[in-house]
Write a structure and sequence with these properties.
Layout: E1 3-6, E2 9-12, H1 19-25, E3 44-49, H2 59-64, H3 67-71, E4 74-76, E5 88-92, H4 93-105, H5 113-130, H6 135-146, H7 149-152, H8 158-174, H9 187-209
Parallel strand pairs: 1-5
Antiparallel strand pairs: 1-2, 3-4, 3-5
Helix pairs in contact: 4-5
Bound molecules: FE2/S2 (inorganic) cluster.
Protein name: 2Fe-2S ferredoxin-type domain-containing protein
Domain 2Fe-2S ferredoxin-type: 2-96
Cofactor: [2Fe-2S] cluster
Length: 210
């Protein structure tokens, strides 16, 4: 089984699985507003180790993120699939921002809150300049590259989405996901994992033939 560490917690993962699926199943603090369709950008994360154990950035990521951001190791967890045995370590953008905000409110010993503010402001500004301010243009770009279908039905499995959202919230507030996933749920996610695998195969085939 591939070894995957998300936000400092080691999690079970399957070969070929997308990072967002691993995170959701384990109630990790990560965004998945669009249900893993590459639209919302809330699943953004930074790969701290094992980038070569993931598929290369997809057309959707290339459409959304400037080269600088990709070079810094940023990925969309719904586009990044496991292709090796790991170890892979990531920090979700949601968790990174949360930790930075906590440090401003409760600075570590012998530190000033003002000093803690800099990394947070820097992070938010970069996010704004690189992506948020360009959202409409990036959206058009992403539609051009990925086709409009994924944008017409962004959340394929609402029940699963709601369940996972509660589990993530519970994990953050109490340190426990409260309840395991309901068996049988997650079919839409599995379908997206399979689709991601098919896209990877098709991209490799196109590369081979060109
Ligand atoms: S979950 Fe929305 S872009 Fe990845």
């Amino acid at each position: 089984m591939p070894k995957v560490i998300i936000n400092d917690v080691e999690m079970e993962a399957k070969p070929g699985e997308r990072l967002v699926s691993v995170a959701r199943r384990n109630a990790a603090h990560i965004g998945f507003v669009c249900g893993g369709n590459g639209v919302c950008q809330t699943c953004q994360c930074r790969v701290l180790a094992g980038a070569d154990q993931l598929n290369p950035p997809t057309a959707v990521e290339l459409a959304w993120m400037p080269e600088r951001r990709l070079a810094e190791g940023h990925r969309l967890a719904c586009q990044a699939s496991i292709r090796g045995q790991g170890p892979i370590e990531i920090l979700s953008k949601a968790e990174e921002l949360r930790r930075q905000a906590v440090h401003v409110v409760q600075p570590p010993a012998n530190e000033q809150w003002v000093d803690q503010l800099n990394p947070l402001v820097d992070n938010v500004l970069k996010l704004w300049v690189d992506q948020l301010s360009r959202y409409p243009f990036n959206l058009i770009n992403a539609v051009r590259h990925a086709g409009p279908v994924r944008f017409t039905n962004p959340s394929d499995d609402v029940a699963q989405w709601v369940d996972d959202t509660f589990r993530v919230g519970s994990m953050m507030l109490t340190g426990s996901a409260a309840a395991p996933r309901v068996p049988g749920q997650g079919r839409a996610e599995a379908a997206l994992d399979n689709a991601a695998r098919d896209v990877r195969r098709a991209e490799a085939e196109v590369k081979r033939l060109s």
